[in-house]
Amino acid sequence: MALSSAARSGFLDLAPTVESFADAVVHGLARTPKSLPATFFYDAEGSRLFDRITDLPEYYPTRTEVGILRDHGAEMAALLGPGVQLVELGSGSSVKVRLLLDRLEAPAGYVGVDISRDHLRDACDRLAADYPDLEVLALCADYVTQDVPIPPPTTGLPRRRVAFFPGSTIGNLLPEEAERFLAHWRPELAGGGMLVGVDLKKDKAVLDAAYDDAAGVTAAFNLNLLARINRELGGGFDLSAFRHHAFYDPAKGRVEMHLVSTRDQIVPAAGRRFAFQAGESIHTEISCKYSLPEFQALAARAGYRPARVWTDPAALFSVHWLEA
């Protein structure tokens, strides 16, 4: 992997193949109840739609987390220390990380890890142009299910490696999966740690609105998963025959997103045919919410030391510093 001459940036492609997408679709639609992995939301169109979601008035997590990073970024950067290699998991548009990079002392490098190849490359190219002294690597991979070895900076080993995992993406995993995920990444971060955004439990009405906005952008984001199957796997989904359904389940402490069939139908996809009954759903995503003690206990079970936590004044969201 060579760095470009125009900017200190590079690209490493470890993305899942089309075959793995097809396998996931066949496996998920053949089971009962039907489901599809949320990982595959983020093609170019899905990433564009998610960027729109983050600006919606109902969707509080992004602006709230940005506020926490803006207010406490200097304190976070001091805890991370000088000479750090910052690895952003689910980097998306790489907007939030700038609030850390602006405050870090002589960072050794930045690695953006995301599943959406084109979106990732564009974001890292912009970052490299804006931070010409920073070594930037775009690493396309499914960082949740894959082993993702992180190359050291070309200048040598960093003083420490820290993962930045914003956006409450960890809530897309069941608690036991989140614990395994954190434990899996801990060896890569030994001597450093993880800075992770975690959404907090709150009123059901606030959460329902955040995942089912009045403008229908989240519905379009959810339905784009079926459109992607049509585009890439020869699917025959009629998007008008499915509706977006999202709700918070207080007993389980999580939001669930579904695509519900509005009629009996048979749909071809990935070389197979799948039958749907009216009212039958495809489960596409969860978003688990935590209290502060719940998440800190989970992180401790995964082998981290919960060292600091920051929240907004309304206690909507939290950012945790977990020492590895």
From TrEMBL:
Per the UniProt record, which residue ranges are transmembrane? none
A GO molecular-function descriptor = L-histidine N(alpha)-methyltransferase activity
Any one biological process term the GO annotation gives: methylation
Carries keyword Chloroplast? no
EC class of this enzyme? Answer: transferase
Region forming the signal peptide: none
The domain of life for this entry's organism is: Bacteria
Q: Where is the Histidine-specific methyltransferase SAM-dependent domain?
A: 22-323
Keywords (A to Z) from UniProt: Methyltransferase, Transferase
Q: Tell whether Transferase is among the UniProt keywords.
A: yes
Write down the Pfam families for this protein, in alphabetical order. Answer: Methyltransf_33 (PF10017)
EC id: 2.1.1.44
Q: Could you tell me what this protein is called?
A: L-histidine N(Alpha)-methyltransferase
